[in-house]
Amino acid sequence: MIDLSILDQAPVSKGNGPHETLRNSAELARLSEGWGYKRYWFAEHHGTRGLASVSPEIMMAHTAAATTSIRIGSGGVLLPQYSPYKVAETFRQLEALHPNRIDLGVGRSPGGTTKIRLALTDGVKKSMTEFNRQLQDLSSFLTDSIPADHDYAGIKTAPLIETAPQLWVLGLGENSARRAAQQGAGYVFGHFINPERGEKAFQIYRDHFRASAHFSAPASLCAIFVVCAATDEKAEELALSQDLWLLRVGKGADSRVPSVEEAKAYPYSPEDRKQIEENRKRMVIGSPAAVRRRLLELSDRYQTKEMMVLCNVFDFEAKKESYERLADLFL
To answer: What is the CATH number of the domain that holds 129?
Structure first.
């Protein structure tokens, strides 16, 4: 069997606003704890009307206070835009409030357009090539293990607590897998973004893993879009809104999730339909039996025992039902 977790981008459906979307996210986190999900993570996206999860640490504090056992995390903090020390203290603060429940997922994504990236750093240009150094520093700050010859040797990471957040590295291929392995961090492969390189990435992660204060053995997740409904036909219908949303996002549109009715009426070109077919490789869609079979196949292929699920359909009730059906299958 496999464990299940949720990655929430807080997608805004047409007709709703950020207020309702974020309230729905908090409700879903509470429900997922009752269904037996292992983790609930929030994404970080900037300058968009289509995704409302801007500050994962704020959503984490909100939902961790409303739950009792599910692990709460970021998926992930855009580390190149921030100070590793500040990130470490922020997440140790969360860990102090909710011991042994906090996950710190970090990614190398720039976070948006050039202007947005500069706005995030107040005009200071950051080099993506610094990510390895930042990740090393972050790991050291979290575990109070700054080397004696480091520029920041001797400083303390507050609050001074005995536990630490789990460190996870998000990625899409071999380089990110190697980074995670070298730091002894957990590894999350974004199948929902790039479904082509997972097997190689997970293999590299396992082969190069070094035990650390974070994990004594390899720990990995596969993040994937899933739509599960009573029948294959119903799941396919619900997924139409996600199909059109992804199509528009892929074209650079700042899009909210459209209704199924809008998706059915949309004038798709042959190129659009080809792209939708390609996007479907990033998803598992179907009845409980079909979804179970496909997720177990992926788990076996990737040799990972935990799936982190996204479900960006239009209707919140349908989204809840999809997650609950998944829980009934595995948890």
So the answer is: 3.20.20.30
